[in-house]
Amino acid sequence: MLELLREDMLASEFEPGERLVEARLCARYEVSRTVIREVLRQLESEGLVTTVPNRGPVVTELTPFDVKALFEVRCALEGLAGALFAERATAEQREDLGEVLQRMSRTYGEADLAERLAMKDEFYTILIAGAVNPVIDSTLRGIHARVQMLRGLSMQAEGRAPETIRELTAIHDAAAVRGDAGAAREACEVHVRNAAATTLRELSARQLENQ
């Protein structure tokens, strides 16, 4: 149940700021109120749900300030993860990262949003595992969960797909092929900074449309 609701929220089945009414959720997922309440508590701890006075739980609505803050931390941590991968990853992890990138290069442009998200998640799962740092792992999970609510904005932006592949290729070449920690850090940071700029631009456009 937790995974189902989380996936639906990240797939934009619920709008930012939308009330999460227990009775409707019970009917939709065919579970009890007790289960729904526990799931909402967990999602609130992940930052996907916010409890608003006099309204109850709602889908977290990220402001431009929130987005900037999240991407600043993501940039620092993913840069460190890339550097550590270059130093610590096994030969198998380096090969796995290359295989995911090859698949993305072939199919990313034609894939739908869900498929793109799955491929990027696989790329980052390998990168973070190769960094061998559980603090980075656990911290980035929370950040990625909140950022993923807006990833569709950047990933579907015109021209972003080929840029993403070029940026991930630079990460792979620096971290997995050359084992250059400094270059890997920089490549990761460039990717996150570009994603942040696109997300903020698309978020601003969406807010103007809704005014």
Description:
- Keywords: DNA-binding, Transcription, Transcription regulation.
- InterPro entries: GntR_C, TF_FadR/GntR_C, Tscrpt_reg_HTH_GntR, WH-like_DNA-bd_sf, WH_DNA-bd_sf.
- GO terms for molecular function: DNA binding.
- By secondary structure, this protein is mainly alpha-helical.
- Helices cover 77% and strands 4% of the residues.
- The chain contains nine helices and two strands, in the order αααββαααααα.
- The chain has helices at 2-10, 22-29, 33-45, 64-88, 91-107, 113-131, 134-155, 160-178, 181-210, and strands spanning 49-52, 56-59.
- A two-stranded antiparallel sheet has the order 1-2.
- A hairpin with a 3-residue loop joins strand 1 and strand 2.
- Helix 8 runs antiparallel to helix 9 (181-210).
- The longest helix is centred in the last third of the chain and has 30 residues, at 181-210.
- The chain is globular, with a radius of gyration of 18 Å.
- It starts with a helix and ends with a helix.
- The relative contact order is 0.14.
- The mean pLDDT is 90.
Q: Could you list some keywords that capture this structure?
A:
211 residues; mainly alpha; two-stranded antiparallel sheet
Rounded to the nearest angstrom, the distance between the terminal CA atoms is: 34 Å
User: Average pLDDT across residues?
Assistant: 90
Overall body shape: globular
Proportion in β-strands: under 5%
| Secondary structure tally, helices | 9
Protein name: DNA-binding GntR family transcriptional regulator
Pfam families: FCD, GntR
Domain HTH gntR-type: 1-62
GO molecular function: DNA binding
